[in-house]
């Protein structure tokens, strides 16, 4: 069993948040001379004068001409370039976020302009509208506005739609990346405040989506302004590309997505069908399981398997996908990737039952819809599907390869059950004895094995595992633990994607790291009061509200972020030593994607911690 050692999970979260996020090295750099970076969450001021904004914009355009466009840069590299630009201009650090957006713009501008209008998305924020007297209503895709002359939204919208753009009026909508991965658009022209644009950098630019962004002058979300000529500078312009396209992971994401859409019946044909009542009942489990398998989620684990396979077998898919065509993978490779999602979805069914969660993917969970017994059976069916998908490829992959993957998956399954079992035992009144070390060990068992299995499967299909045997489980442990901590933090964000109930883990007094940190930090009467909240007969809503107050009082959210930084740093250190370069780049991408900056916890207790949703979110 791979679990963190005491030194790896020691609770030093009382120290100040250290600046330990490293920028990626160039190929010629060593691990000893890499600069470090820190969070840019407070560096989002827009220059007050148009003259200064134009000056920085023109300088960013000139600076970007020297950048290597063979691959997307990550946030660390973008920040390093932006700091260098501000230093050259003698401008203060407070404009860092603004400079990052502009350099990103000119990195991608020519590739964005080469995208046909009908393959572009115009993303506008609702805060551009006039708050008073706006006649527009919201639908599932955002603000449904018409041209009334009261604000500039309709001006952009009407012209963009005439050209063929898809137009979305919504603030930071999670549907954007889903639209891109689904293959409907290839580039984004977006207007947003720097806070939203910073989050977009983690998701959109990192994946390699040609984008051009226009920052709003402020983030107060009410009748804000922008430099309108900057929109028209790109909105109605098309220029054929005269340079090579930047490679990225969007084509691979689209392959992963396609496996659950047009390729699904090819990879996983239904084995039961019939017209009689008996046949219908026999086919019901398979039908529900197949429907559940294609529902929601990011399909990230199948992506990891495909991308890892490609990274060590020639990197042909990434290179060939740069021209817009979907990469091709053998059926056995795709079925193995599909199996990763089958195992993941099975674990979610069982986890929802054990936690009695009411919603998943914006819908009622399976046990709420069909009952506990049928839901358990559906989860078991998905596990069987996963193993069959792998075994079906044993002739194409080789029996030894298939056996190694099955063995690693079985080990991951056992670890997951051990971790879930421990979590169930710790939940409720037993949580008062939880330590941060206990929580970290639990996370290493519950979350890391799924990443490990997906990464291992891709690498093993491509060849021997000798040089990666130690790296994979250690890297995935740091990735999984950091991901779970971020998930704890996101549990307090009622606006998170697919989040219909905020503070759910606190309501149930689940053994999270946040709870363990609070228990470790609380002393004397505060500790006694905290234990009473955990073990007492309070309503779930009141318990969550009180625990939230303790977390803020004891600085738990900030200390949890510090541990995420540690996980990120340790994973980066392992990635630094990995070869070939394509695999190293993939590991960096996984770190930056999975361990993206956590949401900002609420400064005040949430007013609405649970309750029925008004409408299910998209995605």
- The unreliable regions are 1-41, 139-143, 274-278, 601-619
User: How do the strands of the widest beta sheet line up side by side?
Assistant: 6-3-7-8
Tell me what portion of residues adopts beta-strand conformation.
Answer: 5-15%
Oligomer description = single chain
Continuous helix count: 26
Describe this entry's structure for a reader:
- Helix 8 (250-258) packs across helix 11 and helix 20 packs antiparallel against helix 25 (556-576).
- The chain is 55% helix and 5% strand.
- With 619 residues, the protein is mostly helical.
- Residues 1-41, 139-143, 274-278 and 601-619 have low confidence and may be disordered.
- It has helices spanning 50-64, 75-89, 96-113, 153-163, 175-181, 194-207, 228-235, 250-258, 264-267, 277-293, 300-311, 316-321, 331-355, 366-370, 372-391, 394-397, 399-426, 436-446, 448-462, 471-490, 504-507, 513-521, 524-535, 540-553, 556-576, 581-594, and strands spanning 21-22, 36-37, 120-124, 137-139, 142-144, 166-169, 187-192, 211-215, 359-360, 363-364.
- The protein is built from 26 helices and 10 strands.
- It has a 4-stranded parallel sheet, sandwiched between helices. It has a two-stranded antiparallel sheet with strand order 1-2. A two-stranded antiparallel sheet has the order 4-5.
